[in-house]
Structure formats: C-alpha cells, structure tokens
Amino acid sequence: MKTWDKKKILEIDRNHIWHPYTQMKDYENRDPMVIVSARGLKLKTIDGQEIYDSISSWWTNVHGHLHPALNQAIIEQLNLLDHINFSGYTHPYAVEVVERLKDFLPPELSRFFFSDNGSTAVEVALKMAFQFWQNKGQKEKTRFVCLENAYHGDTLGAVSVGGVDLFFELYKPLLFKSFKAPSPYCYRCPEKEGFTLDASHQCSLKCLKGMEEILKEHHGEICAVIVEPLMQGAGGILIYPAAYLKKLREITRRYKVFLIFDEVATGFGRTGTMFAFEQAEVVPDIICLAKGLTGGYLPMALTITTEEIYQAFYADYLEGKTFYHGHTYTANPICCAVAAANLKLFAEENPLVKTREAREYFHQLLLKTFADKPYVGDIRYLGYVGAIELVKDKQTKEPFPEELRVSFQIYMKSLEKGVVLRPLGDVIYWFLPLCVTKYEVEEILNLSVEAIEEVLASL
Ligand SMILES: Cc1ncc(COP(=O)(O)O)c(C=O)c1O
C-alpha cells in the first residue's frame, strides 16, 4: 500500500502552492485537507477520515469517484494514443464523443468545437458569436448581454460577461463592456413569496423586462446573450423558472441576437435532465459544456453550435473567415476516451431514471429539514443540486454580518463532520453526483445540519 509523509506534503504545500479561490492567510493556522483517495461519494484523507464529496469536486463528478467503466476506458486508451494535435488530424476517440453526444442533443446543434475547460468553452462561444457577425459584414454587432450574478469562468472574456462583483469588480479595467440585465434572483424578487423551490413556478417574469429593453434599444450592436440556463450557479445557486428561458428565446429571435447557454455546471444530468435547457423546451444557438463531460475525471470542454453559425466561417481561405482559436490539448484522446465512456453510461444505464427517487427524496428532505429553521431564508433545489440561503432575520431577509464569516466557519466545521459545505456567500449548497442513494442523502443532510447549528450556536 502506498504511504505518504503528511508533514512533508503540508510543508511543501504551505511554502510553494497557491490554491485557487483561496485566501491563503485563512490557512495560516490550519492545514488544508490532504485527500489521498476517493471512491463513490467518499473522499479519504491522509489520516483515514472519510468525507462526503457533497459538491462533486467542484461540480464535476457525475457517477461517483473511480467508476470501474471510466477507469477502464482510460486504461485502454493508454495502449492506443496519448495525444496528437487536432488541427489537420482527427481520431476515433473524438469522433465517438461527438457521435454519442449527438444522441442527447437536438439536431440543430450539430457542430462541435473541442477545448479544455468551462471558461475556454465560453471564450470560444463569445468569439464564435462575435465573428459570425463580422464574417457576415454586420461589423457593428460586437457586444454581449449577460446577467447580474452570472458566472461563466475566470478568463477575461468570461469575466467580461460575468456578474459576481465580489470576484470580478477589480478586473473591470481589463474587460470589454457588456450589457448587464437583471438577475432572476427569485428569493429577492418583490413579487415572490415563500421559498423559491424548483424551476417550475410561474411568474410575471418582471425581471426579464430589463433584458427586453436592452435588446429592443441596442440589438443593432449586440451579437449574443449568454446565460446559465435554469440556475445561476456560482452567483449563489439561483434557480429560476424555465418560462424565463422560453421567453428569452422568443425575444432573442425577435431581435436577431444569438442565445448562448452555458451548461458547464448544469449539463450532464445535474438538474434532473441531461441538459437544463430541455426543461424549457428551447434550443439555443450555442451551448458550452465542460465539468461533467468527462464524468469529472479530466479537463475537456465543448462549444456546440448550429450549421448556420458554422457556415458563416466556411469559405475560401483568402476570404479571411477562419476561426483562429485552438489549444494545445484540444480533444486529447485520453479525455475523449473517458468522456465517451461517461456518455455510454448515460446511454446504457440511465442514471437519471435509476436515482430519480433519491433526488426527489433529497428535495423533500431539504424542505423537511430546513423549512422551519429561523436561519434559513430560502430553500431551492433542482435535480441533484440543493441550496439554502442563510439569513440573520427571516422576515427582513437581512444577511449575517460579513465580519462573522458564518458560512466560512460552517465550511470548516463541515469538514470535521465529514461533509463538504463549501459556501457561495451566504448560500450553503449540495451538488450531488447522480449515483447518490437515499441513505447518503440522509447522512449528508444530517451532518450538514449538525455543522450549521454548531457554528450558529457558537456565535
Ligand atoms: C456556469 C459556469 N461556466 C463556466 C465555468 C468555468 O469553468 P472552468 O472552471 O472549467 O473554467 C463554471 C465554473 O464553475 C461555471 O459554473
């Protein structure tokens, strides 16, 4: 059995490694968890503690860790082809991904562009939408519309269409200017009463008015609207009605503006359907996929678009319509092998049907556990994702004072308890893999309540 030197690992980590989305000083007097193995829903630390991976390792893991079929796909691929550049070459492994994925997509989405991660899939989508209009001679259509509270990644193009001020405000001087439409943040909507719950509620869609006005006034200079369908993830797991997307599709068509759905977080079953947009019964012009594409194993992304967009780039070389975008590891065969195996599991084992009961139980239990808690302002869920918004005062929706760092304390406590409650602001959430069982749902929520209430009692 493999052994490790914990002291040395932590020493080298502390002295040399800069972790993402982490104030390193928070770890001045505490150590990061050292994870050495994982299986199914559980992570194992170097000390042998088991922890529920209740956020699916940053929303990537789909079928549980180390699924035998996914492991096997990688092992087999290692006897065939490790890597080849994808410009002027192709391989059966990328082709299999496309062939399998096509079965889950509407026929309009027929052109697949590979890249490496969610942010890059978004960059590609933005450049495609922009260049489409340039190639068509409509040079003035250069701007994008995004939503407040939107998160599309951390590269500068993706940040330019982002709306989480905490992450992005500082970088403003580096960004291109986008139009920002109001966020469909149902909990803070003056017209909505009670918990947000799922994406089925009907409303007047007042928050879409701002978007409509922007499009009406500026459509001549706008190339595309980008949104995260049904759920603004990093903005706080803000779940909004499918009817919003239906109407948005209508108005983007009316004003001849492309619609980009960023399904990086919502794709691959997480919302209860293979893709979130299915629940709205609309088809976007471009979708962005990453995270769950490889079942949570390896970095790979896809930007998928229509024949109409593709054809605007298809021309004699000297016409200058080529899409000049590509990354060294585009369509890496090992990534493709595991992505194909992931899609095969979806096709053959139908996890969304298999664990339907567990995900419905998850919703019921969230309500049962948190509906009467004085510290829970909102409860929202969609498929395998659930969230509660913590408030100091349920009536006024006043948040806890920032200086208390309540959710960070809950995060730290949750790790001790054996569950990962990595917060988004005042929102505590669960982002479960599709293989979760009712028993695991119950354990995860029980541990979560313990962690939350111990911290709140100590304030
Ligand atoms: C909706 C959405 N888009 C894009 C991204 C960026 O993906 P990546 O971290 O792979 O660059 C994320 C990451 O959380 C996301 O949630």
TrEMBL record:
It is found in: Cytoplasm. Signal peptide: none annotated. The keyword Ligase does not apply. Transmembrane segments: none annotated. The modification N6-(pyridoxal phosphate)lysine is found at residue 291. GO terms for cellular component: cytoplasm. GO terms for biological process: biotin biosynthetic process. Homodimer. Belongs to the class-III pyridoxal-phosphate-dependent aminotransferase family. BioA subfamily. This is Adenosylmethionine-8-amino-7-oxononanoate aminotransferase.
